[in-house]
Structure formats: structure tokens, C-alpha cells
Amino acid sequence: MIKAILIFNNHGKPRLSKFYEHFNEDIEQQIIRETFHLVSKRDENVCNFLEGGMLIGGSDYKLIYRHYATLYFVFCVDSSESELGILDLIQVFVETLDKCFENVCELDLIFHVDKVHHILAEMVMGGMVLETNMNEIITQVDLQNKMEKSELLLADKCSFA
Amino acid sequence: MALKIVKGSIDRMFDKNLQDLVRGIRNHKEDEAKYISTCIDEIKQELKQDNIAVKANAVCKLTYLQMLGYDVSWAAFNIVEVMSSSKFTYKRIGYLAASQCFHESTDVIMLTTNQIRKDLSSPNQYDTGVALTGLSCFVTPDLARDLANDIMTLMSHTKPYIRKKAVLIMYKVFLKYPESLRPAFPRLKEKLEDPDPGVQSAAVNVICELARRNPKNYLSLAPLFFKLMTSSTNNWVLIKIIKLFGALTPLEPRLGKKLIEPLTNLIHSTSAMSLLYECVNTVIAVLISLSSGMPNHSASIQLCVQKLRILIEDSDQNLKYLGLLAMSKILKTHPKSVQSHKDLILQCLDDKDESIRLRALDLLYGMVSKKNLMEIVKKLMLHVDKAEGTTYRDELLTKIIDICSQSNYQYITNFEWYISILVELTRLEGTRHGHLIASQMLDVAIRVKAIRVFAVAQMATLLDNAHMLTGNTQRNGICEVLYAAAWICGEFSEHLENPMETLEAMLRPKVATLPGHIQAVYVQNAAKLFATVLKSQEGNTDSTTAQEASQLMIDRLPLFVQSANLEVQERASCILQLVKYIQKLQQKDVEVSEEVCALFAGELNPVAPKAQKKVPIPDGLDLDAWINEPPSESESEDEQPKAIFSKEEPKHSRPRHTEVDEKELARRREARKQEQANNPFYIKASPSSQKVYQETPGVEHIPVVQIDLSVPLKVPGLPMSDQYVKLEEERRQKERAEKKKKDKKKRKEKRSGRGKKHDSGPESEEDITPAHMVDIVTEEMPENALPSDDDERDPADPHKALDIDLDKPLADSEKLPVRSHRAAEVLKSPAEDEEGENVSSLEPKKKSSKEKREKKKDKDKDRKKSKEEKKKKKHKHEEKEEADLLCGQADEPAFQSEETNEVVTPPTSTSADVSDLDFWLSNAPVPSNTQEAATVAAAEAAPAPGAISVTTPDSEPEEPKDTEMEETKSSKHKKKKQKREKEDKEKKKKKKHHHHHHHHGDKGGEESVQNGTVEEEEPLPPMSNYCLLAENSYIKVAYDIQGNLQDGSQVVVSVIFENKCDSFLKSMEFNVLDSLNSKLQRPEGSGPHDSLTIPFQLPPGVSNEARFVFTVQSIIMPQKLKGTLTFIVKNEESSTHEKLDFKLHFTCTSYLITTPCYSDAFAKLLESGDLKSSSIRLEGVNMPFHHLLARICFHHHFSVVERIDSCASMYSRSIQGHHVCLLVKISSQTVSVDAKCDEPTLLGNVLDEIKQTFSQC
């Protein structure tokens, strides 16, 4: 199971936080801070796994992260997930973002966090991996966006009619 | 009105959207909080408007603010409003917000039930999808209960997109509403074989998650997962399954044996690191479960360790980390294999990556021996000094202690060294593990009697230098050590050199700053020391020292009497009064030392931590019974508890008095605590003093302050552990020298013996004797302690509720709650599922009955018969048929009594299922190469199957017995050596492999084949689907083609290569000339004519299997592909290059997949009229009908839908979804097959192939 997915930048500013278990907002912020603290002090060429997050999980949980340019993608998972599998999943996630936003950069995530959530929802659901096939994810996301667009057009027409 | 609308839309234009909000926040970096609070005010205004678009926009912004840490729960109701918008755009915003901030205690959640139900049944799949996604994050027990049935219905939705989400969310539903697990499980199991890979993967995911927590309930699924493992190509699914097997093998070693081979093959063949790693992991788990008495797996262990070493040596830090992680699993059972890589692991200790160092530390645990313990610990101590960051340093500390204390201090040869290590560790500032060091000190001092003198001296020094430990930071974890020090000095004070000095050190005013529980120990042990001082002065004419001691106590104790801590206060005031009394006696020159010492007499023995729990309850003691009847309510509280003491003699009046006093005191104390707890101005003491030591709940939360000291802290006068390392080495050398002398002597004596033995080889473990004889006192356990173990699971664990037996048949009471007025609606919902499943609200019940049928198998023939009877009524045969059946039924009991065990054995369904598993497990591994080759050989060698079957019809009465015997055997898994039997099983198992767990309809069919008409029962001839592909003097190649469940355009060709010659076959390459329609899948980057290298070599006489995936476009015509196999034959003298041509025959049958079908769905399919029909006639078929059916099922991948007498309906489906229905009738050696299919060409070809099959026999 995945307990949480966090994206934050090099300064620890959260860009997306998805917790699959309830914490109140203060604890969530503490978790983000702690995770940032743990992850950011690691060198570039060390392994992508990390133990010892106090607030979230416990001994069964691990932080698996990747660092892309200005962003950290961190998954907090328990032992039922394959470490390398999750690393691949992060890669799929980032590539999907890249396809959906066309050359994704931090600004996309800053201004369209809702879209990122929708993309993520097609990959991971309730802490379990739903889909790992990038094309399938993109198809579903696109179809939903199309639906949204057609609804908006309709709404505009209605309001001006 | 119009104006209002216009105004609304204009307002909307000027509203901030999410982007504006984000931009605004970025532009107000200095006063972010203020800006956001104005934004929240705006949002509140927006939420008050009627326009749903405005509301949705506001909710969208709130979701963002929630991420920044703002509580938005106040808008929960508005979120619900947005969720219930009819527009997808807004609905999605609403559900997203809900998934981010709703949780179990959000009260508006209960308002959402109906909305969610509506969305779940929405015709728009994305409405349903969004609702499922949202629900997965905030499902509550109530929602789970109310919606379980709706979600279960969605598991059979026509759209795979919905199916996979519905399957996945079931896990959450199970967690919140465990009662739903059993009713939903059959369908979940079905989804493991869903044609859509996404759905399949979701089902695997859920079952793996369930099985991880309660593996034993899922053992019966092992055959199904095994099949998936050998057929799936999706790495993600494979990883999950392999992980699951890792959890299952400890429960069933036979499973492990079955797994080893396919896993080893995967290890050799896969290119995906993640898969390789998980395979290695599971192989390790298997080997662990087999480790007892299976020495011949050392090759597998070696393979694993080698692969892991490669990982650890890899430059990729991730692989290094994982390699170490897996290595630690091997360590537990096969320490020897790991120890040989000590160099590598020690090297990893110096890695710059903390994660890797931590993992290497874990491994060190198994690396130590008596010989190298000191050296390793020394190295770790160096790391402790260098370590930055408390986490790693604490980890080092615990590891040092773990390593040293493991298996009852087995590796420690010198306890003085260990004590000094512990003392050195107390120099660590800011560690959380003070209590750990303390408990080690106590443990060693108590259990190693010989070390007490030394330990006491060390502890005394420690106490004397307590200020160094506590420093300025009085709430420092390390001060826990003083607890141990004080206790040791007090308890073993007879060993103290200068008790007076220590007494003084323990009563310093500074002590009052220590935590309460430590002070309490100080006070108590000061009293012990005091007693010792008095005793040492006994007989001494000069009593000044004794009086000084009393005076010291009287002077210093009042400080503790004023302590805020109750425990300290109580002890101090008690002891103070005692000392005052003693002082009086001293002044009268009365000898008191003996009496005072008696206070603390007696030795304290260590007690095992679980001793208390294991005290057995004596017979006849009922702990729940009242000793005295509880006082009636009317009795006033003040009344004396007469009942207890009234029988006692009057002498005891004083103790009674104190007893009452104590009670009174306790009550007052309780009242006072209550009062204090309620008094906000009362500064509370640390939580209950006694417990703190054991659990130290507070210590972890103490903020750790790090002090930067340039000068290393050293407690003056304390010996350094390094010293001991040297001393120890010298000692050992001396010992060794002595030993050598002895050896030489011995050798001189035994000169004539066996000549040279190891001369001066490295000293072995046993040679090192501990420095001083250590008498390690073992922990005490109560007499006849219960052996029962052990770590009970946390009762709060939600997974505990899911520990449910899934094999028991479903009771009616377990049906999921269905809201009655919705039932009709559900019935109407999309029933024309592609799988022909009829989705109805009655499903669970129907399932359950079917389930029962499956499980109970032939054991309740009677009931089944009657059921079948009913069905038959529909069909043509009427009364006569029934009469026949009744006769059959009447016969039944006779057979049953003959069936002895089979029938008598417990009729519970679980046993049937378990024996299924046993049956599967008792067979040799399925894809095991040799076995499969044997099957091929058998199939070829087998004479016309009639040989056995023809003779049988005459000897009817014997038949039932025969088969029964066989069945009994299979269930008891006795192995019969006869080849025929074995083949028979093989085939049965194969069949199982195909049909197992498929479906009830299928099962039903199988049953009727086996049991429907008893006279026909006779062993089925052996069958194999592998047919010869090509053969020459070197190699024999056989193949089988199977459709891929997950992909409509893929077939998998399994090819068995058997080396027939005495030479080694290597560099085998397999190539096929692709046609337009069918293509061999080649790895990315290779050309269309490249050949595939087969990933193994064949030693003489060995066979192995490889799988190739082909993509096909049209499946309606059979096809032949030409191909070649090239290989090198290598023997001692020469190696030659050989080539073998072959033709791969893709029959239409190979595109069919055995798919079960219920009879009602089958009828519907036939009625639909979309199918074209065709028929064939087979003349002179000389075999029993059930053999005929079994052949069609086996060779052509059909399943029996229903069978009545000499007529049966059968079903199969192609990988591209064509339905193929057969009606097979037999009358006097003529078989007529009427067939229907939506693709006439395909049908024609399949029928031709069936004809072919029967013309061959």
C-alpha cells in the first residue's frame, strides 16, 4: 500500500500532497517538512530509498523518492510494494505529466495542481496502484478533459443565450 | 431575473480562480498569511452564492489551501453540494476536495450516501469513476456497509475502466466492513481471470493485500496464482504474485518446492531488475521455509547469494541497498553463506549513503563471532564518534547493543570490556536510547555474577560524575543510565570500595533535577547504601562514620521529601523517619545494623519478561468469579469491608488498620490526582513513575538538543574499552601459546596418528574461552509455564477483522445488505455483459449456492442430483428420466458405504477445498521440465486409450470402487507408483490447471462428467496438449499454443526442448518466418528476421521449456509458420552447428480459451440469434461419452455447460471474444456436434479440428 504521495520543490514548498490515510492538516504539514528535511540532505548519487520517517508509518514504511530538476517526488510505501516497482511508477507518473502538460515544469504543477491530482487518480487509487500503462492513463485523462471542455462550452453558450 | 443572471456571470468573471489565487499568494510572500485570510473570506462569500460554478471554483481554491495546511473542514457541506452537481466538471472538483479533507469523523459524510450511490450507477462511466476514486479516500464503515452491494455489482460492469476501480476499492470496503469479504470474495476471485489486464492486476493487488495480513486463508488460491504466474507477462502483476508467494510459502513448504523451479527460470530469463529482485526474495523465503532437512537446495542459496553480491557490487546505489536488504533475510537461516561476504558488508559500512550503512549494520548482526566481536564493535564505536545526525547514531547504538547481547551474550568473552563499552556509550549526547544502555547494565550486572565487582566500581564512578552526563539538558535521554547506576550501586553495595562516598554522591542536591522515577531509585538505593555503611562499621568501636552517615541522610533527605513526584516523596519521607529512629538508637549505642540490613536482604533474581503472562491458571480458579459478592448499591461507601477481615483473629487488628490506611491513602491519592488533573494551574509531574522506565513513552518526544563540543567528553577515571581490546588480545595470544604447547605435547604422544593436522590455522570459535568464568544466570520462568506463544497481534489492527475463513459456504444471513426498493432497478442494469454473466441483486445468494456445490463436490451427490433433476425438467426427458435418477439415487447409499473415508470424512466444505490444494501440491511441479517432458513422452508412448477403457463396460460393479480408490488416493495424496495412475493424475492435474477455480458451471460440468452416471465412470486415458514440433537425433521439440487471456491478439507458444544425445546443446536460437497475420514478438530493437536466443543450455538428457509470444491479427483461420532452430552440439572433442526446421501449426483451437459459462447465460446467448450454426457428424466413435467430452474440453479448450445423459452443451470463447457453443449428442457410436458461433469461418475450422482429433483415435 502507498500511504502518501508528496511532491515538493527544492525549498520544501509542497506542490502536491496526497495522503491515503487521514491526518489533520498540522500533522500533514509536519510530515511534509520532515520528509523534505530527510530527503533534501541526501546527495544526488545515493540510493532512492529512505527509512526513518518518524511521523508517517513506522518500521514497515519506506520513503521512495526521485529528484527531478527542482522537484522531489516522494512515495511513502509499506513492505508490500516492490521498491524498484515504485521507482518505475514514479517515472511513469513524471512521464505522464510530461505528456499531459507538454514539457512539464514546476510552474505547471504550481498552477494546475488539480490536474495533477486528476492524473494521479488514474494511476493510484486509495493507496493502491490502479494503472501502470502510460497510454491507458493518458487516454482516460484526455477523455475526461474533453468532457470537461464540452461542458464548459455548453455552459458558456447557455449563459450568453 | 435576467439581470441577476448577467450579474452572476459578470461576478464570475471577476472572481479569482485557482490560478489567480496561486499567483496572488506568490506575489504576497511577505504577508502570505494575511493575504490568504482575505482570500478565505472571499471564498466564504462565494460559497454563499447560488451559482454552482462559483461554488465549485471556491471549493477548488480550498483544495489548494488545504494542501498548504489550512483547515477547510468548515466547508464540508459546500463540498457535498459541489459533489452533487450534475456536471462532471464540478462533480470532479467536489470529489477531489472531499478526498483531500473528508475523514471518518466528518459528519456530513452521512449525507453523501445517496449521492454516491446515484453516481455509482450513472450512465457516464467517468461519473462512476470519479465517485469510486473519491470514495476510496474517505470510505467509512457506514458508507462501506451501505454501498458494498452497489460496488460489488460494479465489479462486473461492462467497462474495464469501472471494473478495475470497483475491484480495487473493495479492499477499502473490506477494511471498513469486514462482513462484506465473504459474500464478495467469489466474484473477486473471478476477476483474477478477467480478460482485461488492468482488472486482473487490480484483483491481484487486492488479494495480495488481503493475503499478506492473513495468509493462511488464501492458501487455497495458490494453484490459481501459480497459473497466473506462469502465464502472465505483466511484470507488475508478476511482482505482486511473487511477493504473495513469499508470504504463503512459510505456511506450506510443499508450495515452496513447486515454486523453486519456475522462479529460478525467471531469475535466469528476466531482464527486469525489479522482477529479478522479487524472485530472489521469494526464493529466499522458500528456502527459509524449506531450510530444515533440505540440504540439496544449497545450489539455490548459492545462486541467490551470488545474484545479491552482484547487486551489492553494482554502482547503482538502489541495487546495492536492495541487495543488502535481501541478504539480511538469508542471514537468518543461512548465516554461513552470508558470512563469506563479510568483506563486502564491512565495506558498505563506510558508504556515504546512510540508507546503505543502516542495511549493512543489520547484516553485521550475523557476522559477529567470538573472535571478531571486539574488532567490529570497535569499528562501530568509531562510526558513533563520526556520525552526524542522531538517527544514524542511535541506530548504531542499538546495533552495538543488539550485536553484543544477542543469543544471551554468546559472543562476549570479556564482560569488563562490555561494561566499559556501555559506559563509553553514555557519552553520547542527545540519544534516545539511554534506557537501552541502562537495561543492558542492569541485565549484565544481575546475570553475570562475576562482573559485579567491576560493574559496581564503574557505576560508582558514573554516579560521581553524574553532572557530566546530565549536563545542562536535564531532560536528556541519557540520564536513564543513572537509574541503572544507582540501582546497581545500591543492590550490590557490598562490593563498593567506598560506600560512604557513593552515598554522598547519590544525595547531592543536583539529583533533585533528575526525572522523578530516577530520583525514586536514588532514594531507595541510598537507604540500601546506608545499611551497608552501618554493617561495615559494625563492631567498630569508633561509631563516627556510622553517625556521619545517619546525619548525612537526615540532612539531605528533606530535599526529596519536598519532591513534586509522589513516589520520591513517599519513599523519602518513609526513609527519613526510619533514619531518624536509627539515629536515636545509635546515640544509645544500640547495634542496629543487622535489623537495617534485613530490610534489604535476599537476592533478586532476573525474571523472564513474559513470565507473568505464562503463569498457568490453576485448576478450579475462575478469575472472573467474584471472590465476595459485590456490595449492593445501597451500601454506603464508608462501610468497613468487614467480609474480608471479620474471620481473622483480633491480633491482626494492627495490620488491618494499616491496610485500611493504605486504602484510604490510595483513595486520597487518586482523588488528589483527579483534582490535579482537573486543575489547569497544577504543574503535572511526568507520567506514572514506575512505568516510565519500562516503556519511556515520553522520551521519544523529547526534543533532542545537540551540543557541539569540540573536546570529546570523557569521564575521568573511566577505563577505555580499547584498553580491553588490547588486553584481550594479549590474553588470547597467551592462551593460544599455551594451547599450542599442549597440542605439541599431544601430538608428540600421538605422533603415529594421522600425520599433520591444521598447524597454526586461524583459531576456531571454540578455542576462545571467556576471560573469567561467567555464570550467566538464566531468567526465571514460573513452573510449568505455558509454552504457548506469543506476540499477540494488536487488537486495534483493522486487518484482524479480516481474518475470515473464505472457504466456508456462504450463509444466507451473510448476504450484503441490499436496499429493497433498488433491487428492481439493479436488475435492469446492464446485464448483457460480454461474459454472459447475469448481474442481478440476487447474485450473492446464487453464488453461495453454487459455491456450495463446488465445494461439497461429490460428497453431497444426493442433493445435487435433486437439483439437476429440477433442471432436467426443463428439457425433453421427463418422467422416465426421473425414475432412472431415482433408481440411481437409491443405489447411492450402497456406493457411499463402500466409499469409506471419502464420504465419511468430515463433510465440511473446507476439507474438500484443502484436499484440492493438497492434491495440487502433492503432484510434481507443473512446469517442471522433466515432468512435462514425461507427459509428452507418455502421450506419445501411450497406446490407443481404448486399451484400458474397452474392457471395462463388462465389469460394471467394479468400476465405482476403482475410481473411488483413486479418489481416496488423490485426496490422501498417497503416491502410487504405477505409471498409469501417475499419468492419470498428471492429466487430471493438467485439467485442473486449466479449469481450476474457473467457474462453477465448469465445475458442475466436470462433476456431472465424473459422477452423473455411475456406470460410465472409468479412468480417463492420459492426454497431453503438447505435440511434436520437430525432432532429429540431437533434440526433440514439442509445443503447445495457448491464447493469452490478457490480449486479444497474443498467443503464447510453450516449447519443450529435450536433449536426446550425449552432448551438450548450447547457443540455441529460435526463429520463425513471420507471416502477415502472425508475428513472433521480438525484443525491442531487433529486426523482424532476427532469431531469439533461448535463455538456457541443455546438458545431456535434460529438457527445458521456453515460451514465445506471437501476435496474430485474424484468428479465424488456422495457420502454419515455418521456422528453424539452430544450436551448437558440443562434446569433448568437437562442437558442431546444427539446424532443425519445423512448422508451427496455429490451429483455431489454440485461439480458444476455456471460459466457463452458466447455463442461463448460455441459453440467452443461443436465443440471441446472432450466431451462425453448423454441424458435423463423427462415425464410429468408440469411447464413453464422458471421455469424449473430456477430450473436447482438454484438446479444444471447451467447458461443459450442462450435461444430460448422452447429450451435452459446451462453451468456449476465442481470444478475440467470439462465442463458440456446441451441442454434442451420442447415439450408438455416432456423435453429432451442432455448433453455433458468431464467426462461421472460425466455427468451420474448429469443427474440422475436432473431427481431426477423433479421427486420430
Mean pLDDT of chain B: 73
- Share of helix among residues of chain A? 40-55%
Summing up helix and strand content along with how strands pair, one would put the structural category of chain A as: alpha+beta
Radius of gyration of chain B: 40 Å
GO cellular component, one term (chain B): terminal bouton
Biased composition (Basic residues) (chain B): 741-757, 847-856, 987-1001
Pfam family, one (chain B): AP3D1
Biased composition (Acidic residues) (chain B): 777-794
Structure description:
Chain A: It is found in: Cytoplasmic vesicle membrane; Golgi apparatus. Chain A: It comes from Nothobranchius furzeri (Turquoise killifish). Chain A is an alpha+beta fold and 161 residues long. Chain A contains five helices and seven strands; from the N terminus they run ββαβββαααββα. A five-stranded antiparallel sheet of chain A has the order 2-1-5-4-3, sandwiched between helices. In chain A, strands 6-7 form a two-stranded antiparallel ribbon. In chain A, strand 1 and strand 2 form a beta hairpin. Chain A is globular. The relative contact order of chain A is 0.14. Helix content of chain B is 55%, strand content 9%. With 1257 residues, chain B is α+β, with helices and mostly antiparallel strands. Chain B has 52 helices and 15 strands. In chain B, the strands form three sheets. In chain B, strands 10, 11, 12, 13, 14 and 15 form a six-stranded antiparallel sheet that branches. In chain B, strands 1-2-3-7-5 form a five-stranded antiparallel sheet. In chain B, helix 12 (197-213) runs parallel beside helix 14. Chain B is globular and about 125 Å long. At the A-B interface, strand 2, helix 1, strand 3, helix 2 and helix 4 of A face helix 2, helix 4, helix 6, helix 8 and helix 10 of B.
